[in-house]
Amino acid sequence: MILNIPMIVCSCRAVSDRELRRAxxxxxxxxxxxxxxxxxxxxxxxxxxxxRIVADRRLAAEERPHEG
Length: 68
Ligand code: FES
Description:
This protein is mainly alpha-helical. 50% of the residues lie in helices and 7% in strands. FE2/S2 (inorganic) cluster (FES) binds next to loops.
């Protein structure tokens, strides 16, 4: 069973995976996701995880058929 519970990715700024996916979903580049959410802007320990979430979102968007 998969639970749909947000997970904190950036503990310094209390930013969840859900917030990061939402920010990346708008097609924002990594730098913009970091700026908008505040994730990765303190100790930087979460940067790799944030980068992976943004990359996964971008890949999912590319694979999604165009709607129109
Ligand atoms: S855990 Fe994200 S900046 Fe520290």
